[in-house]
Design brief:
This protein is 36% helix and 28% strand. It is of the alpha+beta class. Strands 1, 2, 3, 4 and 5 form a 5-stranded antiparallel sheet that branches.
């Protein structure tokens, strides 16, 4: 299992819309997240930033993320969520949510 932390900005005028979307996520999107070996997934908000945490329990992260990205319902979900978000200028090439470095963990 590998833990992931990611961060992105949320547009202030879109925060309530983003919260409403995530109060009732589409069942097919939730199913795809699980099929792609993601567990314990949470998104938090603070001061204009969204922080996502999840655990990856599969053995080929790149393949699972490609599977998720190819899913038509997930693509439609991203199309409604992306206008609410503003990626960090410092993100790596190809990232939307910027991956974070884990610097401490305690079980």
């Amino acid at each position: 299992m590998k833990r992931y932390g990611q961060v992105i900005k949320v547009k202030p005028e879109k925060l309530e819309e983003y919260k409403k979307l995530h109060a009732n996520p589409w069942p097919g999107v939730l199913k795809m997240i699980k099929e792609c070996n993601i567990k314990n997934y949470s998104i938090y908000h603070k001061d204009g930033y969204l922080f996502a945490y999840f655990e990856y329990v599969g053995d080929d992260f790149e393949a699972d993320m490609a599977k998720m990205a190819a899913d038509p319902e997930t693509q439609r979900w991203w199309d409604v969520c992306k206008p609410c978000q503003e990626p960090l200028e410092t993100r790596e090439e190809g990232e939307w949510w910027a991956n974070m470095e884990e610097v401490f963990h305690l079980d």
